[in-house]
Amino acid sequence: MQAIEYTQTRLTQGKVTISPKGYIFKSLEGNYRIGAAEKKMLNAESQRREAAKAQAEIAAAKVRSEAEAGKEFYEAADAHIRKELLHTFVTGLLHQRQMARVGVSRESLTMENILTANRQLDETFCTHVYSRMKKVIDLRPTQARQRPTTGYAFPLQASSCICL
């Protein structure tokens, strides 16, 4: 029984390359078995793989939700904002490379067909819209906190103060 477990473990590790039948006979003959430390190591490795898989699924779900939020924002935006978002997307170097990889020219993309041109491009564009939207939302509270109240219509700058 230990020889079978040993052989199965080596098969999953990819260490048996020629003949599993010959390997199991050799392990039966040599009374091979897996030590307790190696079993613990294999269990820890499988747990790490499962955790990495779970994290990848969570990340994929997050990207999908961000893409959906970006799509909703883009569809609700007016023409000026749509045009600006499309322009920032098609001028980005990484986005241009992806367009070339999927076979879509940047001249063929318009505000109307960007969401239907290609599924991969659609998801990338929607996440781009989400990230731009997020930057604007994140900047608003920061700008409000950074400006001191002076009673004037413009914020106070350190270089414009006269210190005595």
What shape does the CA trace take?
elongated
Report Rg.
29 Å
End-to-end separation: 89 Å
Low-pLDDT stretches are 148-164
Helix count, DSSP H or I runs of 4 or more residues: 6
Q: Which bin fits the share of residues in helices? A: over 70%
Strand count: 0
Kindly report the average pLDDT value: 81
Succession of helices and strands: HHHHHH
Structural class by sheet pairing and helices: mainly alpha
Strand content: under 5%
- Biggest sheet details: none
Domains (count): 2
List the helices and strands and how they pair.
Elements: H1 2-13, H2 20-30, H3 36-76, H4 79-91, H5 93-102, H6 119-146
Provide structural commentary.
The chain is mainly alpha-helical and 164 residues long. The chain has 2 domains: 2-53, no CATH class; 58-139, no CATH class. It is 70% helix and 0% strand. It has helices at 2-13, 20-30, 36-76, 79-91, 93-102, 119-146. The radius of gyration is 29 Å and the shape is elongated. The relative contact order is 0.08. Mean pLDDT is 81; it is low at 148-164.
